[in-house]
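Mods, move this if it's the wrong board.
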Amino acid sequence: MREIQLNMYHALALGAVMYWLGAALTRKLPALRRFCVPAPLVGGLCFALFNTLLYASGLAVITFDETLETVFMILFFTTVGFTVSIPMLVKSGRSVMLLLALSIVIILLQNAVGSGVMALMGKNPLYGLGCGSISMIGGPRTAAAIGPDLDAAGAVGGTTVAVAAATFGLIFGSVRGPIARHLIVKNHLREELPESREHEEDADDAHFTTHSNRFVLGFLMLAFCVGLGSYVTTGLTKLCGFNFPAYIGPMLVAVAVRNLIDHTGRIEFPAAEISTMGNMFLAIFLSMALYGLKLWQLVDLALPMLVCLAAEVLLMVFFSILVLFPLMGRNYDAAMITAGFIGFGMGATSNAMANMQAVARRYGPSPSAYFMIPMVGGLFNDFFNAAIIALSIGLLS
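Not the wrong board. Structure tokens:
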């Protein structure tokens, strides 16, 4: 079979084109917007399907240089580290701490269920991690970032399994809050608003005023954290005896830099500029990671994956209803938090916000839920999830 090799520059250009294609398709297809499916995921999977057809026909297979994919991945996760405010976490009180603790519990349970199901079905338990917190609470970005570690640990096709599971999680995680509605109605928490809107409106693009010097400052901060963070990752790996994802060190350094800047107050932190760069890095990184998926590797794992994902769905539903909702107070805020928790616990923070918006349009807003869910689901979970995954891969491999 002929192999068509693309160097890192070709791979970067293809990633840009696939992102553009995905953005065009998400604009044209309402279902993709309703399920909060990211544009890079749509474009990347389109090319992955094309490559799979080439491979299945025996004509050719296209391979890629992954150098720049790794660079953009590390840059993106470093921008996530810059968003973590330790004083904000401390001031947020008992509820945020409790929600964070419950999210750590679900990370452990998702990995235990996933690896257990795969082991019972005679498959490598590492594939279960790919169907566990890597793809569920981690979402497509973590699946694409840590999937190669599964491949390296012996689970060939681990990236494909993890991203496929994450895609399933995005769809299930965007169920528009029926579980939250069930809790609200059953417990008589709030009456439905008289003029509820059933259809979500597209959010306006964010705008802000900036200066080129602020972008330069933000990028220099990123470069510093990536460079110093590589030593931190190496040190953690040597200290703990198992491999951490390459982005962990830069993320930790970014947290330290951000909180040091906030504490001293000597310079204004370019938050909007770094967030914009993060969105750009994520778009290219996901596009490059997803168009390289080898979907033909899913054939032998189709049935175990279905069983594993069904178990993850049941786990999330029962945990949310029987554990999360009671512990968070059994009130309307708890029901709204449940909707958001399912969103980021099986998809992404965007799913969580979409779920809560759907519920709020029928029953009214919940300021505490809107504060806690993005903080826990969008900021702190990445640290704990990455550490637990690294430990789990080390133990199972």
